[in-house]
Amino acid sequence: MNTTTRIVIVGGGPAGLTAALELQASGVHDITVIEADHQVGGISRTVEHHGNRIDIGGHRFFSKSDWVMDWWRGMMPVAASADPDAARELRYQGAVADAPSATASETDHDVMLLRSRLSRIYFNKQFFDYPLKLNPDTLLKLGPWKTFTFGLSYVWARVNPRRPEASLEDFLVNRFGRKLYGQFFKEYTEKVWGVPCNEISAAWGAQRIKSLSITKALLHALKQVFGLGGKAEQTSLIESFLYPKYGPGQMWETAARRFVEQGGTLLMRSRVERIDIVNGQVLGVAYRDADGNEHALPCTHLLSTMPIKDLVQASASAWPDEVRAIASNLSYRDFITVGLLYPRSAIPRQLDDNWIYIQEPGVNVGRVQVFNNWSPHMVADPGTLWLGLEFFCKEGDPLWTMDDEALKALGHREMVQIGLVQADAPRDAVVLRVPKAYPGYFGEAYKRFEELQSALDAVPNLFLIGRNGMHRYNNQDHSMLTAKEAARQITSGQVDKAAIWGINVDDEYHEEK
């Protein structure tokens, strides 16, 4: 490693801050993180509104990477759990080490809690397990005819799979059968992405739910019934997780403080406007600070978590027309959270869920979070229930441009319509818009993504990390691992960009051990 190494990191989310701290741990001292927002954490930040906190998109702190789990515990200790079942399950999954890592108290400020996981599907005014489980409760709710026809459809799909498996529709039908796909996957997925499932790449399913299947869900359920135990093979089936006391942003605020205390420079409310790439090398960036002043910052290495679309635009002169065209036409899915606060008496059902996937027809809301169940400290008054309604949209469409008061009214109206709330109005409400929340796995530009990736990877001192930085639907632990690998390559001088992309190669890591 050159003693004059000067690092610039664009973005203070999980990938950016992990890279910063890993580089510091390796002896690099001249590191600047440039963050456009007034908060760190990216989409893993926590937003506070009148004492109630919002977790944008929901973040379970569980990873099959021991390194990630150790990293999190090194940043924030785990409080001893008052829930012995949650503690037993999480320790069984290897997520909590033995003492002394779990000797902190929930009364401490900077701690993680052990939380029980519950996600359900809400369809036809009934709750179904998520992921779907072939247990008596599910079969009773579906009824004998649907159970029979869904079963036949599943068997047919296994015997006659679609080949080649090109689209997300192919992927889902092959694993669940056409009937079950049409009932529980198609409408919700198209609500999330805004395009038909047959236009979405199978790569999305491979990355997110590759190994999850009816057979494995059934086996997991049978093991639970007969007490056979065994570690859950899919992270979607893991029943407990860690969670920072005050939401996911607390982890990254803690990381940012440590980075600054160790001599790092963190520039908040500063936006990169130009990236200077000359003769195939990044020489520096230009950014505009909170007061509107522009600054030039030279660097020997640039780690980028900014959307690839914006990265290429900021360095446009370095790229041929075809590369600029691919980047400018990449698709993204945007996201709105509407927070609604109700007295508990306004909720007719017991809602112990972290997430509720809304499959009811005729509503725009796609998913509902119950923030009380992520952590009781997310809510100012325990006598209230703090809901986060998630709407998937695209910048400029009618949902995105709807004014805040209309969105609040829409959210409340839909909660009453589907029977989750009985109230004339919420006590409080807030609207959050999150642009470029999900990189799109569809469109003509995405089909040519490898060309774009190759062009960017050819710049030896430019490292793409994180979700938007790589245009991949990474969870925060994957983002952290891409940052770790980039930091290793910089400090060792052994650059191999394929190893960063390979963190999720064959898309097996997230869901299958």
From TrEMBL:
<dbReference type="GO" id="GO:0050660">
    <property type="term" value="F:flavin adenine dinucleotide binding"/>
</dbReference>
<dbReference type="GO" id="GO:0008767">
    <property type="term" value="F:UDP-galactopyranose mutase activity"/>
</dbReference>
<dbReference type="GO" id="GO:0016491">
    <property type="term" value="F:oxidoreductase activity"/>
</dbReference>
<feature type="domain" description="Amine oxidase">
    <location>
        <begin position="15"/>
        <end position="490"/>
    </location>
</feature>
<protein>
    <submittedName>
        <fullName>NAD(P)/FAD-dependent oxidoreductase</fullName>
    </submittedName>
</protein>
<dbReference type="InterPro" id="IPR002937">
    <property type="entry name" value="Amino_oxidase"/>
</dbReference>
<dbReference type="InterPro" id="IPR036188">
    <property type="entry name" value="FAD/NAD-bd_sf"/>
</dbReference>
<dbReference type="GO" id="GO:0005829">
    <property type="term" value="C:cytosol"/>
</dbReference>
<dbReference type="Pfam" id="PF01593">
    <property type="entry name" value="Amino_oxidase"/>
</dbReference>
